[in-house]
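Researcher: Re-running this chain for the archive, since the previous output was lost when a drive failed. Same request as before.
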Amino acid sequence: MDKIANLPNIRPAQFDRPVLDKLAPLGDLTHPPRILLLYGSLRERSFSRFLTEEAARILEQFGAEVKMFDPLALPMAGSVADDHPKVVELRALCLWSEGQVWCSPERHGTVTAVMKNQIDWIPLEQGAVRPSQGRTLAVMQVCGGSQSFNVVNTLRLLGRWMRMVTIPNQSSVPKAYQEFDEAGRMKPSAYYDRVVDVMEELYKFTLLLRGRSDYLTDRYSERSAAARQAIDRQLGKI
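Model: Regenerated structure tokens:
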């Protein structure tokens, strides 16, 4: 087929018609879902870390394998080479993960520098691999005062930019200093119930996308660009 009727600008060889059969999961899916959790504070009594730890416990109860990245000693993005041990650790965890949780305090109406620095170190592409594309993402925030959604909205924007599948639900905990006990455990409340909701939804979405994310994130424009590059390489050999 040289052309598609009424769509002369489309390359037929790269035009893929989605069907349910193509959504069959591929690969070894016998391992527990792998979830990476990032938080945005270095304080000793960090409510974003407490909330992230609570989320990790819930995910483990669902059956996930979880890992948390400690942002302490992670240099500012661009200030050191990519082979810095903390950068290597963060990027390896991103590649390992199938889903992620991002949790930040709100500072000056947005995410903290600690949170943004971690995201800035995650490349859109690492060789032929994309460390964030196709991963599921849940976003959460803690507030020092009344409830706000500035941080979760910003994290959603960042997740979209990183080509992640951000789940619909989210958690925003106001007056966080009232919601955790001295041991850093979250107290029973409607806010706690919402955290359980968010982790449950993340776990379900991660199960749905496992073995399918490569197909779901495969794009016509990229297939077309790859085909053009292949032709150019062949012409270059003539």
